[in-house]
């Protein structure tokens, strides 16, 4: 930094005005370097597209039962075989995917919205508000999720809507702690103080100044959460406490595959729905991992 | 105490119209919590009974070691902190008790330049957005006018206006600090509080930023409260200087007077640490203070400086010295001059 | 340290009260107010009303809560609707099975995860490291119940190596080998619930230690790599891992619901699922509360262990 600064500025502006990189392009470039994350994004895009287009691309009616075709092996007619009622597994996987992915995404949106709001309030205002909200978080976290989930779902009668509601209401605690932590560090940063000295309102400071800086870890957590909700949905549906038949979901398709006969003669039936869950969740985790590196503020700042 | 205040007021503020900001007995205590139930067990007296006044168009330097409460004073004045006690008179109106809504018009008049140029600009926003924010908050000007003003301000602080679409991370520390200064200027303030605005910068860049601040003061008719941790930096820019120690004001004097005739032993020690700026200057004998700064949660009785003062007397441990005017405009809080 | 533990214990009180209120609220809000007993649907409205009055079910919610709480504190969790037995008795009967399952799972998780985590750290960026990392990714994404299904399909049905479920062969005398034969699959499946996490945690903890100065010093002194890693590194690297055991408790107790159902293992988890389908609210609530209290205790143990283990932390 030996030169007078004005020269440096002049040079910089001459050289780099044309090819400067925005924050977003830095993040995208960093993400693209992570092969697993790109693979995850690509695979997930295919899965989501296929599930969304299920009514048009599914070769069979997912609920059409034909006992003559029961437990048919994979072949040209039924690509991934059929289940114990002769329904086409591939078609059911696509339609079930709609349900599983919807639960995952909507529950994530709910949980992240609640968690972000509560975490922002606790972190920004501090004091008694913070102490009360964090005790509430402690209480909710103390229940091993599955017990409270099952109890609530059982009390409220299982359905897709109830599942989403219960997931969102019980799973915001992680996000709220994350956001609170970010707010605690960010609220005393000088750019926030600067915003206060120009008379900016608290709402505007929270949503316009601090939240955008705190969103990195939230986006990562949200991505991982979708995978987590898909796992939770499949577990509850498998136990018979989630999505109710005849509506297909990746979890409840496995419920009726538990039989020695099927295990012996129709391995495809219990295998494919589980693989779908595994691959989808894996994709979300890969993407989340890639985003974690790409959104790392230390990388972006430099 | 009231006596001191009166004395000070009489001398500095004889002509009230001349004074922009007057601080009277300002206190800022932070609670200390401990124990099982996190009860408040004490207070950190960050600012304890500080009074001074700043005249229109002048630069008032506020100096002290880190932890002496100078930054807290600045932040309390601009109401980032709630004052525990005392008055903050801006153009004669007390703003210490106003709520955020009542304060809004004053937000335009008092602005701040922060210490750390890396954390004082929101990393997610472009420079243009950062500089337009004050206009949006106060609903000033049209879109085109805002853009024009932002470009003008960037030019004023010596930056290329084309750079307004860039993000802070694309600038150097010195450039960022200029952006911080430009932001402080957006609302046409009367008073700018500089919270150690150059101490995070390289020495070579410090003087550039100081020069810019000096030029802007003339162009915009600004008044500065300039906070710094050593007397070297404020020497160039200040008209009058206040020296703080452990939350209290030790000495206030015009710059020339303070440098040529420091009265308080603490000021003398600080001055002896300033490197000489010219070889012809007589080398002063360095006064090394013994010990560390005591904790502001449990400050010494009497004069807070007596634990480290080379000239401390028994009396200093008992009575708090009052800030009194020894020569016109030269105030000192020390028992040596009683 | 003592003040820290005391403060931590005091902080538990509001959490435990919160847990009990939430548990009661769910039960209270459940359709048909099944708070204390299962009413015969055939009895007349007056009889029903009289019963409700006699049992205090018409009292305000907070009175009912306090009465219920008083009973709980005396160890009385009410009676099961369907089994006509005290809930405490039901839980106590099944608890040993769950404990055995959890102990064996913990053992399996530790002997598999920790060596792989350590090897992965000492050979960072090797093929083994990538393999371990990738496998943990897969492990984190695999639904536990599906892994169980697959293992039953392969090992129990196709290969016939292990029994399909249960604790022991029906009607046989106690036989250790028979027990091991029965427990190995469910314990492995339950162990995988936390294995990926434990491996990653071990890896990062070891990596942190290995990169520290005193390890480099030991290396510079000319010790053999093995001595360096296993004598100097392992001891310090494993300290933080001990704290994770407190946190494994809730995972295992949650995982036991799925695993016990899958393998017809007569423990608390299976009891819970059965009770859910029978709408046996006293049992449901008791187990939920029991699990929550265990979680709180697990967290407490983790925090205290952490405080003891790390002398740098002051309280």
From TrEMBL, chain A:
Q: Transmembrane residues, as ranges? A: 36-58, 99-124, 136-156, 162-179, 210-232, 267-288
Domain spans labelled ABC transmembrane type-1: 97-288
Quote the PROSITE patterns the UniProt record gives. ABC_TM1
State where it is primarily located: membrane
**Membrane topology note:** Multi-pass membrane protein
**Per its UniProt record, what InterPro entries does this chain match?**
BP-dependent_transpt_permease, MetI-like, MetI-like_sf, Oligopeptide_permease_AppC, OppC_N
Matching entries from Pfam families are given as:
BPD_transp_1 (PF00528), OppC_N (PF12911)
The record's subcellular location field reads: Cell membrane
**Assigned keywords, A-Z:** Cell membrane, Membrane, Transmembrane, Transmembrane helix, Transport
Query: From what superkingdom does this record's organism come?
Result: Bacteria
Please verify whether the record's keywords include Endoplasmic reticulum.
no
Q: What family is it from?
A: Belongs to the binding-protein-dependent transport system permease family.
The protein's name in its UniProt record: Peptide/nickel transport system permease protein
Q: Which organism is it from?
A: Evansella vedderi
UniProtKB/TrEMBL annotation, chain B:
Q: Which InterPro entries match?
A: AAA+_ATPase, ABC_transp_ATP-bind, ABC_transporter-like_ATP-bd, ABC_transporter-like_CS, Oligopep_ABC_C, P-loop_NTPase
List, for all copies, the residue spans of the domain called ABC transporter. Answer: 21-271
Entry-linked PROSITE patterns: ABC_TRANSPORTER_1 (PS00211), ABC_TRANSPORTER_2 (PS50893)
Q: Which GO terms describe its molecular function?
A: ATP binding
Pfam families given in the database record? ABC_tran, oligo_HPY
The secretion signal range is none
* Keyword field: ATP-binding, Nucleotide-binding, Transport
Give the residue spans that cross the bilayer: none
Q: Does the keyword Transport apply?
A: yes
- Family to which the UniProt record says this protein belongs: Belongs to the ABC transporter superfamily.
Name of protein: Peptide/nickel transport system ATP-binding protein/oligopeptide transport system ATP-binding protein
UniProtKB/TrEMBL annotation, chain C:
Which superkingdom?
A: Bacteria
Q: Where are the transmembrane segments?
A: 9-30, 99-119, 131-159, 179-198, 238-263, 283-308
Subcellular location per the Swiss-Prot or TrEMBL entry: Cell membrane
What the entry lists under PROSITE patterns is as follows: ABC_TM1
Q: Which residues form the signal peptide?
A: none
Protein's recorded name: Peptide/nickel transport system permease protein
Membrane topology summary: Multi-pass membrane protein
What is the organism field in this record?
Evansella vedderi
Pfam families documented for this protein: BPD_transp_1, BPD_transp_1_N
Q: Which InterPro entries match?
A: BPD_transp_1_N, MetI-like, MetI-like_sf
Q: Which keywords does this chain's UniProt record carry?
A: Cell membrane, Membrane, Transmembrane, Transmembrane helix, Transport
**Belongs to which family?**
Belongs to the binding-protein-dependent transport system permease family.
Please state the protein's primary subcellular location: membrane
Q: Where is the ABC transmembrane type-1 domain?
A: 95-302
């Amino acid at each position: 930094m030996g030169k007078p600064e004005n020269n440096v500025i002049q040079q910089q502006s001459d050289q780099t005005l044309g090819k400067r990189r925005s924050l977003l392009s830095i993040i995208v470039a960093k993400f693209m370097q992570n092969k697993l994350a790109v693979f995850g994004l690509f695979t997930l895009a295919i899965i989501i597209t296929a599930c969304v287009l299920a009514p048009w691309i599914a070769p069979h009616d997912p609920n059409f039962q034909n006992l003559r075709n029961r437990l048919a092996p994979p072949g040209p007619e039924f690509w991934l075989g059929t289940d114990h009622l002769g329904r086409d597994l591939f078609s059911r996987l696509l339609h079930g995917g709609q349900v599983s992915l919807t639960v995952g995404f909507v529950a994530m949106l709910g949980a992240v919205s609640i968690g972000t709001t509560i975490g922002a309030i606790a972190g920004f205002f501090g004091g008694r508000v913070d102490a009360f909200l964090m005790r509430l978080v402690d209480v909710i976290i103390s229940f091993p999720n599955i017990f409270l989930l099952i109890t609530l779902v059982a009390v409220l009668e299982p359905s897709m809507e109830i599942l989403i509601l219960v997931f969102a209401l019980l799973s915001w605690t992680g996000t709220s702690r994350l956001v609170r932590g970010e707010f605690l560090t960010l609220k005393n940063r000088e750019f926030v103080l600067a915003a206060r000295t120009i008379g900016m309102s608290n709402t505007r400071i929270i949503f316009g100044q601090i939240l955008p800086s705190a969103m990195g870890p939230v986006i990562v957590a949200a991505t991982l959460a979708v995978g987590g909700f898909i796992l939770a949905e499949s577990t509850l549906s498998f136990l018979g406490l989630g999505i109710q038949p005849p509506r297909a979901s990746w979890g409840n398709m496995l419920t009726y595959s538990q039989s020695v006969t099927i295990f012996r003669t129709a391995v495809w039936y219990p295998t494919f729905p589980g693989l779908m869950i595994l691959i989808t969740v894996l994709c979300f985790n890969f993407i989340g991992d890639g985003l974690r590196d790409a959104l790392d503020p230390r990388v972006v700042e430099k | 105490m009231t006596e001191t205040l009166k004395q000070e007021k009489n001398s500095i503020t004889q002509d009230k119209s001349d004074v922009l900001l007057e601080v009277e007995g300002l206190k800022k205590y932070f609670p200390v919590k401990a124990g099982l139930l996190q009860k408040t067990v004490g207070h950190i007296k960050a600012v304890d009974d500080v009074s001074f006044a700043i005249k229109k168009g002048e630069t008032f330097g506020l100096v002290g070691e880190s932890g002496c409460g100078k930054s807290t004073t600045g932040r309390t004045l601009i109401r980032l902190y709630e004052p525990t006690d005392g008055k903050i008179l801006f153009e004669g109106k007390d703003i210490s008790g106003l709520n955020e809504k009542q304060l809004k018009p004053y937000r335009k008049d008092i602005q701040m330049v922060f210490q750390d140029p890396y954390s004082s600009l929101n990393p997610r926003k472009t420079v243009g957005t950062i500089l337009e924010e004050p206009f949006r908050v106060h609903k000033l000007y049209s879109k085109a006018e805002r853009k024009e003003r932002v470009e003008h301000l960037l030019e004023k602080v010596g930056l290329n206006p084309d750079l307004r679409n860039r993000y802070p991370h694309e600038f150097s520390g010195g450039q960022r600090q200029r952006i911080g200064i430009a932001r402080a200027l957006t609302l046409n303030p009367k008073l700018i509080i500089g919270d150690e605005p150059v101490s995070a910068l390289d020495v070579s860049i410090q003087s550039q930023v100081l020069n810019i601040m000096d030029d802007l003061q003339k162009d915009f008719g600004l008044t500065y409260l300039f906070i710094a941790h050593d007397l070297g930096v404020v020497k160039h820019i200040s008209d009058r200087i206040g020296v703080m120690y452990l939350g209290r004001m030790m000495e206030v004097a015009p710059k020339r007077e303070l440098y040529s005739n420091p009265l308080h032993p603490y000021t003398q020690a600080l001055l002896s640490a300033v490197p000489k700026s010219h070889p012809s200057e007589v080398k002063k004998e360095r006064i090394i203070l013994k010990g560390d700064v005591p904790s502001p949660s449990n400050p010494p009785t009497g004069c807070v400086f007596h634990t480290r003062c080379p000239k401390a007397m028994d009396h200093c441990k008992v009575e708090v010295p009052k800030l009194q005017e020894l020569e016109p405009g030269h105030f000192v809080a020390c028992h040596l001059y009683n | 340290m003592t003040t820290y533990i005391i403060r931590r214990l005091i902080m538990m009180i509001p959490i435990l009260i919160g847990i009990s209120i939430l548990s009661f609220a769910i039960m209270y809000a459940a359709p048909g107010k099944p708070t204390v007993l299962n009413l015969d649907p055939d009895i007349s409205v007056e009889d029903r009303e009289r019963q409700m009055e006699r049992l205090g079910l018409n009292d305000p919610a907070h009175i009912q809560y306090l009465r219920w709480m008083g009973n709980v504190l005396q160890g009385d969790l009410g009676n099961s609707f369907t089994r006509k037995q005290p809930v405490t008795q039901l839980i106590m009967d099944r608890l040993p099975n769950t404990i055995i399952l959890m102990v064996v799972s913990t053992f399996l998780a530790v002997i598999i995860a920790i060596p792989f985590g350590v090897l992965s750290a000492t050979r960072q960026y090797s093929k083994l490291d990538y393999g371990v990392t990738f496998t943990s990714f897969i492990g984190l994404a695999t639904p536990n119940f599906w892994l169980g299904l697959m293992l039953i399909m392969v090992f129990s049905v196709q290969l016939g190596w292990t029994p399909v479920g249960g604790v022991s062969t029906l009607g046989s005398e106690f036989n250790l080998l028979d027990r091991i034969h029965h427990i190995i699959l469910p314990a492995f499946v339950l162990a995988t619930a936390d294995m990926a996490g434990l491996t990653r945690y071990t890896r990062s903890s070891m990596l942190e230690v290995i990169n520290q100065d005193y390890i480099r010093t030991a290396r510079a002194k000319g010790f053999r790599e093995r001595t360096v890693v296993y004598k100097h590194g392992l001891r310090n690297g494993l300290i933080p891992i001990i704290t994770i055991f407190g946190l494994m408790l809730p995972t295992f107790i949650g995982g036991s619901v799925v695993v016990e159902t899958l393998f017809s293992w007569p423990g608390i988890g299976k009891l819970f699922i059965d009770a859910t389908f029978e709408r046996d609210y006293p049992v449901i609530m008791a187990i939920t509360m029991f699990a929550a209290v265990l979680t709180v205790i697990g967290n407490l143990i983790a925090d205290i262990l952490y405080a003891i283990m790390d002398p740098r932390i002051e309280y």
